[in-house]
Specification:
The chain is built from 14 helices and 16 strands. The protein is an alpha/beta fold.
Length: 446
């Protein structure tokens, strides 16, 4: 067993995206860098390589403050997977060049263990490619795969990814994994179930901090038919509001971060005990910050007080979790909002001073059995409210209540290959992908 003076070196890898389209909407590997912080806290050496790095030294990209942390990935057209060959769109690798990745691997000290993360299930080809290059450079170093794809499709990942092990927990078994492969054990430095015990994620390992993701809660009290949150997180847990505010101030003062993206699935739920103290703490510090809500906020929880505090705190990009305006059929999807609550929340936000073009309402497109006319009607309702409709293409996800309906409705064998769950191909439509449909919907918005 290694001693404290021979601490292992762990490499963290965020793999490529292979898809028809991808864009960095405040997307960072939160879970992977959270594990990196724990490893450092326990005395291990940690290195991070990001295959999606928009600011790689070989790239010409430079930070653009006007984008507020968002931006396009570098991309290169690659062969479309055989199962998707009928899709008349360009399939690409998003991220750095493979040769850059190989050189980055060769430039670091040989690791004792490599942890690879994963996100969308249908992005697994990028995971396979990343592990292939890792094994080319470090053939004898164990590779452990985790993340969303690994947890939702573990059998597929074990069969195809090339990883030595696929883990399906939420990070609580990290210590055992490290000990198993390196012989190193530093003892438990915290209780994983207590979110306040977790160190701030190791975002400083990034080459450029374009934005800081914030996760103030884990889990969600809702049981939406299209979402896997309830499967991935069995119960809802919260961090202390004061610690959240402390983290925001830390990243701003120590690393100059000004853009923050809330990753919470239910940020505003029970706001009196959680969100309001966070917002009040931010307002008291008078920091010049921008906050974004890519995962959407709960419409029913928006009160005049919440709207005013969000505006004063610096919320800049608001996304509302509307999903559909077919309110009479909502119970089949979720129970989050009524029509009256939606229009009332929009009024509160506008009264607080939010510009209409900063408020967007997500609308699900491509649900099993969904008629495109229902989407058109939803767009009309959102525009009537005076805010921006934002199309969110439905992704069939295993272990969700809607998965059986998606499997039955799809023209693909969703259970055979996660590639067929790609939301860019509208997998649950009976007919093939249609640019004319997408163009018509976007035309209604614009």
């Amino acid at each position: 067993m290694k001693t404290a003076s021979e601490n292992p070196h762990v490499l963290l890898v965020n793999p490529w995206i292979h898809d028809f389209a991808a864009y960095d909407f405040w997307a960072k590997p939160y879970g992977l860098l959270a594990l990196g912080a724990i490893l450092r806290q326990h005395g291990l050496e940690v290195t991070y390589i990001d295959c999606l790095d928009r600011y790689h030294p070989n790239s010409a990209s430079v930070p653009d403050a006007s984008r507020h942390g968002r931006g396009p990935y570098r991309k290169l057209a690659i062969a479309t997977p055989p199962g998707l060959s009928g899709i008349k769109r360009t399939y690409s690798r998003y991220g750095i060049e493979p040769e850059w990745f190989r050189r980055d691997l060769l430039a670091i000290r040989r690791p004792d263990l490599i942890l690879v993360t994963s996100l969308m299930t249908y992005w697994y080809p990028g995971v396979i490619e990343a592990i292939h290059w890792i094994k080319t450079v470090f053939p004898d170093v164990p590779v452990v795969l985790g993340g969303i794809y690994a947890r939702l499709c573990p059998d597929h990942a074990r069969l195809h990814s090339g990883a030595d092990e696929v883990v399906i927990d939420n990070g609580n078994g990290l210590g055992q994994t490290v000990a198993r492969y390196t012989g190193y054990s530093a003892g438990a430095g915290f209780v994983p179930e207590r979110l306040d015990d977790w160190p701030f994620p190791a975002f400083d390992l990034q080459r450029q901090i374009s934005c800081i993701p914030l996760l103030t809660t884990r889990g969600c009290p809702f049981d939406c038919a299209y979402c896997a949150c309830g499967y991935l997180e069995k119960k809802m847990r919260r961090r202390s509001p004061s610690l959240v505010v402390e983290e925001i101030e830390y990243w701003h003062r120590r690393h100059g971060a000004v853009d923050f993206a809330f990753y919470d699935d239910a940020l505003l739920v029970d706001s009196e005990a959680h969100a309001l103290p966070i917002l009040e703490g931010i307002v008291r510090r008078r920091l010049p910050l921008f906050f974004h809500t890519p995962n959407a906020i709960h419409i029913r929880a928006i009160t005049p007080e919440v709207a005013q505090l969000m505006r004063r705190a610096g919320f800049f990009t608001l996304r509302l979790g509307l999903e559909t305006t077919a309110f009479e059929n909502r119970p089949a999807l979720d129970r989050k909002v009524t029509e009256a609550e939606f229009f009332r929340a929009v009024r509160y936000l506008k009264a607080a001073g939010f510009a209409a073009d900063r408020i967007g309402a997500y609308l699900l497109v491509g649900l099993p059995g969904q008629d495109v006319r229902a989407v058109e009607a939803s767009i009309a309702v959102v525009k009537k409210a005076g805010i921006v409709p934002v199309l969110a293409y439905y992704t069939p996800i295993p272990h969700t209540a809607l998965w059986p309906d998606a499997v039955a409705a799809s023209r693909y064998d969703l259970e055979a290959d996660p590639l067929y769950c790609n939301n860019a191909i509208f997998p649950c439509q009976s007919e093939g992908f249609s640019w004319s449909t997408v163009s018509r919907l976007k035309g209604l918005i614009n």
